[in-house]
Amino acid sequence: MAYKIAFFGAKPYDIASFDKVNEKYNYDIRYYKGHLNPNNVVLTQGVDAVCIFVNDTADATVIDAMVDNGVKLLALRCAGFNNVDLKAAKGKLPVVRVPAYSPYAVAEYSLALMLSLNRKIHRAYWRTRDGNFSLNGLMGFDMHGKTIGIIGTGKIAKILIRMLKGFGMRILAYDLYPDLKFAEEEGFSYVSLDELYRESDIISLHCPLTDQTKYMINKDSISKMKDGVMIINTGRGQLINTNDLIEGLKEKKIAAAGLDVYEEEGEYFYEDKSDKIIDDDVLARLLSFNNVIVTSHQAFFTREALHNIAETTLQNIDDFRHHRPLVNEVIL
Ligand SMILES: NC(=O)c1ccc[n+]([C@@H]2O[C@H](COP(=O)([O-])OP(=O)(O)OC[C@H]3O[C@@H](n4cnc5c(N)ncnc54)[C@H](O)[C@@H]3O)[C@@H](O)[C@H]2O)c1
Fold it and tell me: Which residues form a coiled coil (predicted)?
């Protein structure tokens, strides 16, 4: 009998990439458009594995219901796992993930946000389409010689650091577990968070969301930053207290923000809401700034990444099914 997988939050591009890779596995994949939540967890009855993404909910209620429904594996098709209650899953439901699908995609996208905001490409695009060829307000700065602060120096940040070196930037980094060998090879320094905040012209977030990192960018940390700092977040929305960010933007302490993630993104991101009004006032305020670019958690979204996500997810499920070691298991 074919192994059954309930696939939540399915988009046309997911279905295309998973169906292609599934040609070699022949799993019975049931694609559901909705995000997994306590109301639709009933759809997991009788399936072997459940596949979810960043905005699905796998809290204790959902996990218990999946276990009761006979689900044997939770397969995340993403790297982050902050949406899963690992304590609730422990000993009941193994959780696997895709630790790296294309760190290049996210690193390149972080750089794209920096360059767009700095050189105001997003504004120039609209101006010239409207016959406005003036340059007023579009002035940027040379990246060369500026200081960038990188928080979290894992797979994505390491690639970004190499790219930024090519720009001739001075790189400061902070990580709970500094990779001193890498720092020596690439010629950058690990510093304290306070020093990073104080010195950086651009700050880019690449650490996971944990109890420790939640809201690390807040009123207090913003007050320690340089006037006119640019903040880039392709990590997780809750790394930033958005209300404090908005205050920093209004006070012009923060000159620009590139946000691929947003703390309340679950309601909006990946969905076409263009025929509705935005009833999230915080998001609406963010979208009103001409020095803020908000994108819909798309940093990962390249052809290569989608293919790798499907390959690794189905391989993880195959490993579980055939009792092979789970190399990508998330262990609490
Ligand atoms: N926007 C997107 O599309 C997208 C895609 C993939 C990943 N991400 C996010 O990017 C993050 C980084 O991804 P990665 O693949 O480089 O992860 P990684 O696990 O390779 O690196 C994370 C780094 O953060 C460090 N870290 C952990 N806790 C920290 C703390 N309290 N302070 C400072 N550093 C800390 C770790 O030591 C590690 O070096 C992920 O956690 C995920 O949230 C976003």
Answer: none
